[in-house]
Amino acid sequence: VQLQAYGGGLVQAGGSLRLSCAASGRAFSGYALAWFRQAPGKERQLVTSISRSSTPYYADSVKGRFTISRDNAKNTVYLQMNGLKPEDSAVYYCAARNPASSIRYDYWGQGTQVTVSS
After folding, report:
1. 16 pairs with which residues across the strands?
2. Do 56 and 49 touch, CB atoms closer than 8 A?
3. Which of 54, 80, 88, 104 is the most exposed place for a label (fewest CB within 10 A)?
4. Contact present, 90 and 5 (Cβ < 8 Å)
5. pLDDT tens digits, residue range 26-79?
6. Residue 107: pLDDT above 80?
7. In this structure, which long-range contacts are made by residues 6-9, counting pairs with CB atoms below 8 Å and at least 24 apart in sequence?
8. Dist. CA 19–CA 3, nearest whole Å
9. If we measure between CA atoms, which residue out of 66, 62, 73, 90 comes closest to residue 22?
10. What is the pLDDT of residue 101?
11. Nearest alpha carbon to residue 96 among 22, 40, 8
């Protein structure tokens, strides 16, 4: 699976962005998908994930503000980010794993920069 993330940019605090991650390869619907982020000097952290059955998980820091969704027909996973805060600024990465064979996210996109100004 190859992943291509896009949609980042510069936005003011309180604004919104939608990230997209397009996947190539087979059996996209069988993969669990996630968005991670990494700010300068910090470790990469899991922001949100979505299972094969579209069950979402959210980190506490983004609950109620971010929404993950997937469109298996388009081989794409989305991250709708509302109410953005300066602390959301980071490089955002999409990732995928096959739950049948791995507990780790083995496939990664190249990252897209999100910058939230105060």
Report:
1. none
2. yes
3. 104
4. no
5. 788 999 999 999 999 999 999 999 999 999 999 999 999 999 999 999 999 999
6. yes
7. 6/112, 7/112, 8/91, 8/92, 8/112, 8/113, 8/114, 8/115, 9/113, 9/114, 9/115
8. 13
9. 73
10. 84
11. 22
Q: Per residue in 80-95, is it b (16+ CB within 10 Å) or e — as a string?
A: ebeebeeebbbbbbbb
Quick one: residue 64, left, alpha or beta (phi over 0 = left, psi -120 to 50 = alpha)?
Answer: left
Distance between CA 77 and CA 95 in Å, rounded?
A: 10
Percent helix / strand / coil, the chain, rounded to 5: 10, 50, 40
Tokens of 58: 């959210």
Whose structure tokens read 């980071």?
Answer: 90
Do 98 and 51 contact (CB within 8 A), yes or no?
A: no
Asked if residue 32 lies in contact with residue 88, where contact means CB atoms within 8 angstroms, the answer is no
